[in-house]
Amino acid sequence: MEINLMELEPRQAHDLLTSALIPRPIAWVSTINKEGQTNLAPFSFFTGVSWSPPVLAFSVVNRADGTLKDTAKNIREVPEFVVNLVSVDLLAPMEYSARPIPYGTDDLSITGIHWEPSKIIRPRRVREARVAFECTLERIVTVSEGPHAGNLTLGRVRLVHVRDDLLKAGREVDWQGLDILGRLSGNRYCAVRSVIESETH
Ligand SMILES: Cc1cc2nc3c(=O)[nH]c(=O)nc-3n(C[C@H](O)[C@H](O)[C@H](O)COP(=O)(O)O)c2cc1C
Is position 13 within any domain? Predict the structure, then answer.
């Protein structure tokens, strides 16, 4: 089967891409607007870009009406954000934070999570996140414009928070303890329960 995504309805292209590009970690991004109100939202089009300098990236696609999501708007106003990682136990508050709410509504009262001040930047971080990256905006690469177009947001990592018991040999995060939540498609997620250790490494 050969499929030309450009000939599909956006929803179908979305379903094909998100069901093939799996599993994806989730960037749970906290930002503030210029009034200082906090926003938290998940983005699974998320990956690392480089480690020297340390940069990671996630993509905020425009809403169906072509407008910017709050995260993209806030980062343009205050170019700092925390990428909190989502472990399996944070599924419910993470999904709750994805609901559309009026711009400027503060996300500070989401149940199941608490907030910690960041060290270097103004947006706070989620205390329950086992790993969190304090980032400043490196740049935004806009990919086309209008409905569902992308805002690839690159963040320079200024500080990493790792829960004390999860740091192995002072340099590696313990994958079992991290218990990362992987995004599949639709309402499906996965956990890392079966690890393959190659013999060639
Ligand atoms: C697990 C999960 C992953 C998501 N990944 C993305 C993504 O990669 N890009 C995106 O634009 N929206 C993604 N969304 C939808 C946004 O979280 C949602 O549109 C949210 O309302 C945006 O919030 P904001 O307007 O406060 O920025 C995802 C939602 C969930 C639950």
Answer: no
Q: Specify the CATH number for the domain of residue 84.
A: 2.30.110.10
Ligand 1 contact, 30 CB (< 6 A): no
Q: How many domains does the chain have?
A: 1
Q: Would you say the pTM of this structure is higher than 0.90?
A: yes
Question: Cα–Cα distance between 177 and 98 in angstroms, integer?
Answer: 25
In tens, the pLDDT along 8-57 reads 999 999 999 999 999 999 999 999 999 999 999 999 999 999 999 999 99
Instruction: Look at residue 124 and tell me if it is in a domain.
Output: yes
Domain of residue 161 covers 25-184
Q: What spacing in Å lies between the alpha carbon of 45 and ligand 1's midpoint?
A: 9
H-helix or E-strand spanning residue 157: strand 150-162
Is the CB–ligand 1 distance for residue 27 below 6 Å?
no
3-state SS of the chain: helix, strand, coil percent to 5?
A: 20, 35, 45
Report yes or no on 20 lying in a domain: no
